[in-house]
Design goal:
448 residues; Immunoglobulin-like; 3 domains; 8-stranded mixed beta sheet; globular
């Protein structure tokens, strides 16, 4: 009898080790399990006979197990999601983030963020966060549209595995996914049918980057605009997939148009289900230290920081002040460039208004003779500029790479969203009658 029990135990152990698996999203302990190459991978999380819970985990619960590697005192992973910090050391061979840098998703307890652009990023306690530790809460906006007021599903207990698959390969056909995200989120109940769910498969990144960009980390162009974009994995549908992923739980939040839904609570909604504007344009995934005061807290639904990237719904102003709103009195615009003409490689001073005091980027475009929000400009180069304290002038060196010809000059102040990036059709505007549109921003560049 004893011998039979021993044999049975060996069989169970072998079964745990022989589960077939392909290469997974983030490799490491999250996949590639076979009987010959990584049997310790299984043992890192599971025990056949001495487990602590019914999933044969080595920890008391799922959250405790994940935090063994990803928590504040963790040594087993570079991503400290508790504090929102990339915790790699000199032995980190991944090169997937800047050591000590803030994670793109924020953190569950603390976040290394700068949510008002007043100083360098610092660690602050989160004001709002997802709670994957089994704490119950309300899933705002879950369910079908309804004429009866219903804010969402209350009393839902969330865990890490609601969003992530620790064994990887969660794509529809077993593909690797971005951040080992599931393609079928574990939601509070059956998927909504109205609105129609969107695809939630977010393909894996070729080159993984977990932290905010090193350069000017405290500026909007490097924090606000860093999210899950359409270029991730070369897929134009990546933004839609991100919103589809979030929409699995927050179904009535996601929208591809501003139309009356008939819902008593989520009646008209901002567009958020496209490749260019998705949930992560405004929100972080784990937790934020963004503050909210006065009117910003009166919405009644998921108040406080609401997982937003900036204080007091500053994400709204980041688009609607610095976007293609040419008549806005707050919109930065160019009034003069001197010297002009100028040789490539020489210094220029760009005069204008609303350039801010936190530094700026000067962009050079080629394109039509009278740029407007409807005209396409072709990006040529960008340089970092020094901004005067009154925000009316910036100085920079004309890139030596520019060939002789005419260029349109755009100033993108730090602290403002930079439009659509290098291929942007947006340009620092001029408003009549202050100046004549089309003339002050044209720079003639001569050969070095």
């Amino acid at each position: 009898m004893k011998k039979a029990m021993i044999m049975m135990g060996l069989v169970v152990a072998l079964m745990l080790l022989l589960v077939p698996a392909a290469a997974l999203a983030d490799s490491g302990p999250h996949g590639g399990y076979t009987a010959t190459n990584t049997p310790d991978g299984c043992a890192g999380c599971h025990r056949a006979h001495t487990a602590k819970n019914d999933m044969l985990l080595v920890a008391a619960d799922e959250h405790a197990l994940c935090m063994t590697c990803h928590g504040s005192a963790a040594a087993g992973a570079q991503t400290n999601v508790t504090d929102g910090v990339y915790a790699g050391d000199t032995g980190d061979l991944g090169g997937e983030g800047r050591i000590g840098g803030g994670l793109l998703a924020g953190g569950f307890e603390n976040a290394l963020m700068n949510t008002d652009f007043s100083a360098a990023p610092a660690s602050h306690e989160v004001s709002s966060a997802h709670r994957p530790d089994g704490t119950t809460g309300t899933v705002w906006g879950f369910g079908d549209f309804s004429a009866t007021a219903n804010e969402g599903t209350a009393g839902f207990a969330m865990e890490c595995s609601n969003c992530h698959n620790p064994h990887g390969n969660s794509g529809p056909s077993g593909e690797a996914t971005y951040r080992i995200l599931r393609s079928s989120v574990v939601a509070p109940g059956p998927a909504a049918t109205n609105p129609t769910p969107m695809p939630a498969f977010v393909p894996d990144q070729g080159t993984k980057v977990y932290t905010v960009a090193t350069a000017n980390e405290n500026t909007a162009g490097n924090y606000f605009d860093q999210n899950y974009k359409a270029t991730n994995g070369g897929s134009a549908s990546i933004g839609v997939a991100v919103s589809g992923f979030c929409g699995a739980c927050h179904s009535r939040h996601v929208s591809t148009s501003r139309t009356d839904t008939g819902d008593a609570v989520f009646t008209f909604r901002h567009t958020s289900g496209s490749s260019s504007i998705n949930c992560m344009t405004c929100h972080v995934a784990h937790g934020t230290s963004a503050g909210a005061s006065a009117l910003s807290t009166s919405a009644g639904l998921s108040g406080g920081g609401a997982l937003l990237r900036l204080d007091d719904r500053g994400v709204c102003a980041n688009c609607h002040v610095s976007g293609s709103h040419w008549t806005s009195p707050l919109y930065p615009y160019v009034t003069a460039i001197a010297p002009n003409p100028v040789a490539a490689g020489a210094q220029i001073t760009v005069g204008g208004k609303n350039f801010g005091t936190l530094g700026a980027r000067v962009r050079f475009y080629t394109g039509t003779t009278s740029p407007s929000s409807a005209n396409t400009l072709n990006f040529a180069a960008e340089v970092v500029a020094a901004t005067n304290v009154d925000g009316t002038a910036v100085t920079c060196v004309v890139p030596a790479s520019l060939v002789a010809g005419s260029y349109f000059v755009s100033v993108v102040p730090n602290g403002l969203r930079d439009g659509a990036g290098a291929s942007s059709t947006r340009q620092s505007g001029t408003t009549t009658p202050v100046v004549t549109p089309g003339t002050p921003w044209v720079l003639t560049v001569t050969a070095p």
